Amino acid sequence: MFPYTILNAFDRNKELDIPITYSEVRKAIKALKKCKATGEDTLLNEYFIEASSDVLAGLITEIFNKILATCVFSEAWTPGLIIPIHKKSRTSDASNYRGNTLLAI
Questions:
Q1: DSSP secondary-structure letter at 82?
Q2: Contact at 8 Å (CB) between 6 and 65?
Q3: Distance, CA of 98 to CA of 36 (rounded, Å)
Q4: Number of domains in the chain
Q5: Residue (of 27, 67, 64) closest to 49 by Cα position
Q6: What's 3's DSSP letter?
Q7: 88: in domain
Q8: Full domain range(s) for residue 16
């Protein structure tokens, strides 16, 4: 099948359609925490933190803005692992849990 997801034009929020800036990406990379578990992509936050953030931030900015412009992204980014988180009361009652989805960064 086609390895990309194409967003429906009606799903788009026009307020979010402004380009992502280089400084936003650099700030997001600097905010990543070390020693966190990886997603299915097995990419550690440390790879982003310790890489040359100038080069990496530029590439990530370019990729994300291309995704915004074309509404197309890799389906490899869509899987998530749903973890049940206990909310309250008895742990034996399934309604006392909420789902938390872990996604790759």
A1: E
A2: no
A3: 22
A4: 1
A5: 27
A6: S
A7: no
A8: 4-78
